[in-house]
Amino acid sequence: VLAASQEPARYRLPGAAEIALARGSRAALEQESPRVVRLLAGTAHFHVPGGEGSFEVRTALGTVSVTGTEFTVALLEEVPEMKNTKSAVAAGALVLGVGVVSGAVLLRPTDGQPVPVRAGQAAFADASGKVTMVDLPEARKSAEAIAQVATLRAALDRSSARVVELERKLAQAESERAALEKSAAARTKPAEPQAPEPLAAPELSPEDKKVAALVAKVDWAEGTKALIAMIKAQKQGKQPDPSVYVVLSKMNVAVAEISKARGLGDNPFQAYGDPLVQEQWVPAWMNALGANLDAAQTETLKKAIRDDSRKHEDPNAPPTTLLDARLHELTGLIAHEESYQRLLRPEQYASYLESVGDDPFFGHQVETRTVSKNSAQALVDGLSTDLLSQFNLSEGAGASVRAAVSRYVDEALRVAQPDASLDPPARRLALMRRTLRLIELQGQLEKSIAADPSLNADERARVAEGSPYLLTVKLH
Question: What Cα–Cα distance (Å) separates residue 389 from each residue in 283, 386, 397, 448?
């Protein structure tokens, strides 16, 4: 059930349709199809893009059918437009009202004949099935209002992207102010010798002590520099210096010992996610990327890792698809990026950004695939054929795969590139969030295909395993 109690509420329905409920309104998705909505009470405004098949709104007094339009449906007790008409109804009786902003709908009263309602018109049906048509000149102006709202939303997105930058600058200003106050106090008051306050460290278990000893033997600064040298060389299509592989081998052998001490099984690289490893690895990684953390920043970063270690996932959790794993991974990387922007000074972040560039997964092994065509139709054709072959699906699944791909291509092409006016920190976050949205859309595409009832069990299992790559589509 979709509801708006004290405040209006907006919902995005499966596919691209949207519903905005007025305060006190209720609606529900029918089980037979996510493109059939039942309005239970109040008023709902719908935006239904074309090209996705039929869409229905059902009420106790009738049904509204569309293929692509923007309209409002309401269950009303009083209708001012009908007070002076022959179809006026008794006070307190429910009336079904439909107003159309763009396109056209078909109103089918429960006890009456279907009536088309076009843009700029409203129709009111009573319980007897009688329909009253009303011209609404103001409705035609709604399209302009909608365009203005879209412009305002875009401006809001740009403003939101700047919030992180403003927070970072505020934190920097507060740090500078505190430093000035401390300096002024030192000039007016003799310094008193104070013993350094020890850092609170959690009590380590015997296993943690063993792991900590192994971690202390590793030269993380040398290892992270070698890893970044290898990544940069690969991105340039070059072979890194042989000494890089020697350093990386030494570090990986040490990590394998840590993995064995933790009992992590066949994948020693899981040990890189161990909190005790992360405390040393992450500051070294940031320094290798050019951040050059000072002592206070390093300790702040280590404390954040210790605090976050309490939220670590169960290593025995059931496996997910590659897309689910990448979605979870990128969500964490975005949170880390926001913390880096608060932690680093502008010149530090600029050096870090020079190393990572526009790659949202920098330093992570991620397979990607880009499909580029000269039209959206060509993208749908090519990608549908590829997915049928990739998942080894029968020809009977062709229609449903094509419909799912068509929805995906339409949504993916609408995911805009970051605004060119954004400053570098805000732009990087916007790029990461754009990638996150594209992964979500790819996941929806594959889940939609897997849900096709025409697939047999083996086909459904292959689709459920997901793609081995992150997909991007574009026009050229």
Answer: 45, 5, 11, 17
252-269 average pLDDT score: 79
Question: Going edge to edge, which strands form the sheet with 2-4?
Answer: 2-4, 25-29, 36-41, 55-59, 62-66, 104-109, 115-118
How many C-alpha atoms does 362 have within 13 Å on its Cβ side?
Answer: 23
For β-strands 368-373 and 470-475, DSSP reports them as: parallel
Distance from C-alpha of 323 to C-alpha of 154, rounded to nearest angstrom: 28
Tens of pLDDT, residue by residue over 109-153, are 988 889 998 888 888 888 888 888 887 654 444 434 433 433 444
Q: Which two tokens stand for residue 49?
A: 């893009």
Across all residues in the chain, what is the average pLDDT? Answer: 80
Q: By CB neighbour count within 10 A (0-12 exposed, 13-18 middle, 19+ buried), where does 454 fall? A: middle
C-alpha radius of gyration, the chain, whole number:
30
Q: How far apart are CA 423 and CA 427, in angstroms?
A: 6
Measured at the CA of 358, the angle between CA 357 and CA 359, to 5 degrees, comes to 95
Pairing type for strands 69-76 and 43-48 reads antiparallel
Q: Encode pLDDT of 392-426 as tens digits.
A: 999 888 899 999 999 999 999 999 898 888 999 99
Rounded Cα distance between 294 and 300, Å, is 10
**Rounded (10°) CA dihedral 188, 194, 200, 205:** 160
Q: And the tokens for 48?
A: 């239904």
Q: Please report, for the chain, how many H helices and E strands are present, in that order.
A: 12, 16
Structure tokens at 300: 């702040």
What is the reported pTM? Answer: 0.56
Query: Under 8 Å CB-to-CB from 335, ≥6 apart: which residues?
Result: none
Place of tokens 């099984």: 265
* Beta-bridge partner residues of 57: 37, 64
Coil/strand/helix, residue 37:
strand
